[in-house]
Amino acid sequence: MRILVATDAWHPQVNGVVRTLTTLARTVSKFGATIDFLTPEGFPSFQLPTYPGLQIAMTNRREIARRIDAAEPDAIHLATEGPIGWAVRHYCLSRGRPFTTSYTTRFPEYLSARFPLPEAWSYAVLRRFHSAAAVTMVSTHSMMADLRRWRFDNLGMWTRGVDTEIFKPERAIPLDLPRPIFVTMGRVAVEKNIDAFLSLDLPGTKIVIGTGPAEPGLRARFPEAKFLGALTDASLAAHIAASDVFVFPSKTDTFGLVQLEALACGVPVAAFPVTGPRDVIGNEPVGVLDDDLRAACLAALKIPRDICRQFALDRSWDVSANQFLGHARSIAGGPVEDTPRMARAV
After folding, report:
1. Where are the domains of the chain?
2. Fold equal for 2-161+316-345 and 169-313
């Protein structure tokens, strides 16, 4: 089976959407499927104001159609609601082709954090985008409930998995820093609420992994924190595994894949009791969810690392990939035999 995934988020961006799609492409090949990507590569682009590093593609519908036709996909999936996503949506609707979408980012909340824009306006636009999809995939039950309250229809589950070969305790490296070490990772932007973590009165060392528009201001306000910039794969896993607690201060993420990655490294999680942490951690003894984030951080220090690793081992990418393939097959007329090949961008 050949699937085309249209996404505005792509390399060199380092975020959960890009990591999820990259890992998904590797995993589905084990089940006789192939994913090609239609990305902003090859299109003129401009930088989104107030969001350094994020390029917005200036799409051409004729070129979009040419790329889709050349890929000859059995199914089409729209991963993001940017210009690429809207252009491919138009292609599918104009040709009567069913497609699936996924809701992975709380854009209404992100926009409200930057501009005085009512969330209802943004949700109305997103509802229109996703309403034409045969299935809109969401990663958690609480996110599904939230979207239903905003009158989204045709929702289906697509949970996330973790690569336990990359993220594992054995990758830990020596860190010559005062203990305990509290680490967070993600885009350094206002919606990630990193200042809530850095403002905490905690012993030891605070580490921030990632880059983003809020980084200069946070560096100036919190000079004692260690900012390591963007790390990937083995280097990222090595620094997380070397830490004592992973702190997830975001209140707007729909899932938070980094929580599973930390747990796979044997590192317990401290977070607020909101969507994302509630679905990943819940009442399991691998993390502490508390409105008092400092209390959660200190309590998480007492959690045995081995149970964190075991918890992650039960959240495989195989399960996630099969859920995704099930939705894709629902619009492709069933399984299609295909020879696996490397994923590529089209």
Report:
1. 2-161+316-345, 169-313
2. yes
Length of the chain: 346
Q: How far is the C-alpha of 99 from the C-alpha of 78, rounded, in Å? A: 7
Please report where in the chains the tokens 């509290």 appear, as a residue.
Answer: 182
- SS3 (DSSP) at 209: strand
Strand 245-248 vs strand 155-157: parallel, antiparallel, or unpaired?
A: unpaired
For domain 2-161+316-345, the question of CATH label 3.40.50.2000 is answered with: yes
* Helix or strand (DSSP H, E) at 239: helix 233-241
Contact 254, 236 (CB under 8 A): no
Note the pTM of the prediction, 2 decimals. 0.77
Q: With contact defined as beta carbons under 8 Å apart, do 228 and 239 qualify?
A: yes
Fold assignment, 169-313: Rossmann fold (3.40.50)
pLDDT digits (tens, 9 = 90+) for 182-236: 999 998 999 899 999 999 999 999 999 999 999 999 999 999 999 999 998 899 9
Task: Give 81's DSSP letter.
Answer: S
Task: Say how far apart CA 176 and CA 276 lie, in whole Å.
Answer: 32
